[in-house]
Amino acid sequence: MANDGLTELAIMLKDRDKKTPLSITTGTVVSPPPKPLIALGDVISLDGSRLIFSSHLLNGYERRIKFKETDWGETTTVNDGGQGASNHKHYVNLTNEDALIEWTDTLVKGDEVILVPVSDGQLYYVIDKAVRF
Fold first, then answer.
1. Which domains does the chain carry?
2. Which of 22, 46, 58, 67 is a good FRET partner for 121, with 20 to 30 A between their CA atoms?
3. Peptide linkage before 21 cis (omega within 30 of 0)
4. How far apart are the C-alpha atoms of 104 and 100, rounded to whole Å?
5. Contact 130, 27 (CB under 8 A)
6. 133 in helix, strand or coil?
7. What is the pLDDT of residues 9-65, one digit of tens each?
8. What sign for the dihedral angle of Cα 78, 80, 81, 83?
9. Distance CA 35, CA 123 (A)
């Protein structure tokens, strides 16, 4: 029995409805970058070939910044070189010129991360570190 176009469309829609859509989830860092391994539940481990990271999560990530106005920031250091504590100040000139800021941290073992799966579930985007209160 041949199906008409409307029947075929109904079959396709019914087949689509049977699939459980993938949704945002969390995983736990087992091994941090540069050789990442993330546990997704108790059974699945995702290695670097199945993960795409947001760049801001990685050590060495750089971003340009621009200060809105010139300001002098002041920091105080307490130095105890064996002769008691002495206070002295360091001044930092924050100008309105472009500057570069570099992240020096990354994910560590035990961090919880937010994962977004690609539709086939074979690839995951690691979009940020998760924080629970």
1. 23-61+107-133 (2.40.50.140), 65-79+86-102 (no CATH)
2. 58
3. no
4. 13
5. no
6. coil
7. 887 777 766 666 678 999 999 999 999 999 998 888 999 999 999 998 988 888 888
8. positive
9. 16
